[in-house]
Design goal:
This protein is mainly alpha-helical and 103 residues long. It is built from three helices and no strands.
């Protein structure tokens, strides 16, 4: 059963997973390029920021998957986590992409 969340654009967990995956895949080529060009400290900071976004999305989607098995309607916790996973990893990836292209 698909749980529909009260958002304008993203409505389901599958759409959210596709968004997180695509934003991470778009970020990978400039990130790998910067790893070879920058110093070790800067490369570790950029990689850590990318890892934070990916882990936030992964943990949030995992939480939503387990909660959707228990509830057929979104609870307040599920809506909060869905909104957080829809906003924060994408914002971190956009910020990181700006950093990678401007350096």
């Amino acid at each position: 059963m698909v749980v529909v969340y009260p958002r304008r654009r993203l409505k389901t967990r599958r759409q959210l997973a596709v968004l997180c995956t695509m934003s991470t895949l778009i970020l990978l080529p400039p990130l790998v390029w910067r790893f070879t060009v920058e110093r070790l400290v800067i490369s570790m900071a950029l990689g850590g920021l990318a890892l934070v976004a990916a882990s936030l999305a992964f943990r949030g989607l995992g939480f939503l998957a387990t909660q959707e098995q228990q509830h057929c309607e979104p609870t307040a916790d599920m809506t909060f986590v869905f909104t957080a996973v829809a906003v924060y990893p994408l914002a971190i990836n956009a910020f990181l992409l700006i950093l990678l292209t401007e350096m």
